[in-house]
Amino acid sequence: MGEGLEIDHVSVRFGETSAVDDVSLTVPQGQVLAVLGPSGCGKSTLLRVVAGLQRPDRGTVSYDGRDVTGVPTHRRGFALMFQDGQLFGHLDVAGNVAYSLKRQGVSRGETHARVDELLDLVGLPGLGDRRPATLSGGQQQRVALARALAGRPRLLLLDEPLSSLDRSLRDRLGADLRRILADSGTTALLVTHDHDEAFTMADHMAVMRAGQVVQTGPTAQVWRRPADPDVAEFLGYTTLLEGAPADRLVPGAARVALRPQAWRVDPAGAYVATVLSAARTADGVRLRVAVEGVGEVDAVGALEQVPDADDRVRLVPDPVGMAVLPAG
Ligand SMILES: Nc1ncnc2c1ncn2[C@@H]1O[C@H](COP(=O)(O)OP(=O)(O)OP(=O)(O)O)[C@@H](O)[C@H]1O
């Protein structure tokens, strides 16, 4: 049995609802696994089982080969971090970070040094005497991470840690958290409904649907090779091509999923299309077009040239926005 977390055939029922249905997953020592799925798929329940806050009806949770299914939360050596940080407002930043160290009976001097080290790690040196209310949302999440890491947990459990932040901050902090977890060698399980959050923070991904795990693998691999159309749609692919159009785009492929970025308006493009609709977005123009010999797809263009419905445009396909799916 390997080192790290092992979830083995875990099921949880609430009355008629099968919240978690025979889920098995492993998170090897030092790895970050994101469990990605829509609201209600059972990911929070699964996280609660791992944390020891929910007893499974079936199955076991083990760490480093030891069954911890019956071990109380505070004796598992795991730490939790939630979407809204949940810092103690009456304590300053240092007091928040030191919280678990005090409870563990760590000496004052050692606590002081560890708090400084953790505030450095999360990019907030010197902010120890600030109150949480005087920090930005992103800074508060960094403090929450420092607090979670303080007791050197063998496993960090993260429940949508970035979802209360705005988009640009989310991307930046996500990349920072990934680096911090890697630098500290932390083993982590992240649950989220946001594919960007999963992608920025984790090396490996498990996609859940209706209580079950439907795909696992390295994040880039799941991204490039979604198991089925539902997974593809959940990952942000907006169109599915099957049969001849798929084969025309990617020779030999039976099904191809496309992101809007898979087609770019370009006068030099080899494909001819009729514009069905066009809308301005912050990143450019988003089009729905009917491509000759392919079908209806989304496309992107530059804001300088917003076409009208029924206009003819030329398009260049971009493989980066395409994923080949197994035949259905
Ligand atoms: N304590 C409970 N009692 C009854 N049903 C519950 C309970 N907790 C969760 N459920 C149900 O179990 C299913 C899975 O819920 P869960 O919260 O794990 O999903 P989720 O993917 O985390 O969703 P969200 O992202 O919205 O939190 C849902 O159908 C939910 O209604």
Question: How would you characterize this protein structure?
Answer:
By secondary structure, the chain is of the alpha+beta class. The chain has 2 domains: 4-227, P-loop containing nucleotide triphosphate hydrolases (Rossmann fold), CATH 3.40.50; 232-325, no CATH class. It is built from 9 helices and 18 strands. The longest helix is centred in the middle third of the chain and has 17 residues, at 167-183. The chain is globular, with a radius of gyration of 23 Å. The mean pLDDT is 92. Adenosine-5'-triphosphate binds next to strand 2 and helix 1. Pfam families: ABC_tran. Residues 5-235 form the ABC transporter domain.
Give a quick account of the main beta sheet: strands, pairing sense, barrel closure: 6 strands, mixed
Ligands bound to this protein structure:
adenosine-5'-triphosphate
Helix content: 25-40%
User: How many distinct domains?
Assistant: 2
By CATH, the topology of the largest domain is: Rossmann fold
CATH superfamily of the largest domain: P-loop containing nucleotide triphosphate hydrolases
Low-confidence stretches: none
Overall outline: globular
Gap between N and C termini, in Å? 36 Å
Structural class: alpha+beta
Tally of DSSP β-strands: 18
Count of helical segments?
Answer: 9
User: Which band does the percent of strand residues land in?
Assistant: 25-35%
> What is the name of the CATH class of the largest domain?
Alpha Beta
Radius of gyration: 23 Å
Which second-level CATH architecture of the largest domain applies?
3-Layer(aba) Sandwich
Order of helices and strands: EEEHEEEHHHEHEHEEHHEHEEEEEEE
Q: State the strand order across the main sheet.
A: 6-7-8-3-9-10
Mean pLDDT, all residues: 92
